[in-house]
Amino acid sequence: MESTRQHLIELLQENEQCYISGQELSTKLHISRTAVWKHMKELEKDGYVIDAKPRKGYKITSAPNKMSQNTLQWGLQTEWLGKSIVHKPTIASTQTLAKQLAATGAEHGTIVIADEQTAGRGRMQRTWHSRKGEGIWMSLILRPEILPNKAPQITLLVATVIAEVLSNFNVKPLIKWPNDILINDKKVSGILTEMQAEQDQIEFMVIGIGLNVNQSKDMFPADLKPIATSLKIQSGQKLDPIVMTQQILMKFEDVYEKYISHGFDVLKGNWLKYGYKLGEKVYIQTAKRQWYGVIEGIEPDGALRIKNDDGSVETLYSAEIKW
Ligand code: BT5
What we know:
Layout: H1 4-14, H2 22-29, H3 33-45, E1 49-53, E2 57-62, H4 69-73, E3 85-91, H5 94-103, E4 111-117, E5 135-142, H6 151-166, E6 173-176, E7 180-183, E8 186-198, E9 201-212, H7 231-235, H8 241-262, H9 265-274, E10 281-285, E11 290-298, E12 304-308, E13 313-316, E14 320-321
Parallel strand pairs: 3-4
Antiparallel strand pairs: 1-2, 4-5, 5-9, 6-7, 7-8, 8-9, 10-11, 10-14, 11-12, 12-13
Helix pairs in contact: 2-3, 6-8, 6-9
Bound molecules: biotinyl-5-AMP.
């Protein structure tokens, strides 16, 4: 259910250019005028600047740039994604909390986001470096009505969304199948997809997104310096993680709706636009073997198509592309 605070933010936002009276807010929110006033005080504590005029009502003159549930929802134009947001200043891993929330009934579209993760995770027990305020560390809870074997398509979908959003900042992002976004050969973002499913039904998916936004080169630890980058390093601009998060969520909802209605085929072209080393020879590693092959593209179901030296073609559902 939509919270009163969120509804209040929406009403204030709809009336951004004018004042909205305490009476109107009280009627629309089904709460007393004193309760409206108390909510306003809470918003002020969050850093909102509120102009309150007798007989006119309330108007928000500026929203703070500190990340919180409220600031993320202020300006977020989505139908269902992010209607419920759990924001933590610090957390072990947004992914772990999101999985716990999903297992106990959190609704489709719930977001868990943190300023800092102390035990951020990558795939296969790898760690994800996620220090305070340096990037976007968030997990999305989805309950897609698709077959479990189609779940990897959602990772590709998220990758295209991130690539599209990043490309608005005068950089050239590329997607290294399946879950890395690179700029100039360095990793700017990683995606971690986890799910709970029965044979023919997904109970929930949790999509973890890590995106380096405002690090400068010296802020990465020694092991990441040669392989990681941030949007600030690549674009030369310091960016607002709140606005970037909103852009990702809005784009994601739009693309996800298209995917659910029309299938992966509608995304394939977009993925290919950002595909890393398409047509090039790469080193491939799976649990069983390592070899060189040429990336030919992706299959309609999102699998990677590789052409081997002997001319044979194979499709891969999980692998690491090394270089
Ligand atoms: C990933 O794994 O790339 C998935 C990362 C997902 C992180 C998000 S943050 C929100 C949510 N909560 C979590 O706990 N996780 C998700 P993988 O492909 O396995 O890549 C991991 C490797 O990337 C590490 O072994 C490092 O080499 C490198 N790495 C770690 N932190 C990095 C960073 N901040 N930027 C670039 N590369 C990094």
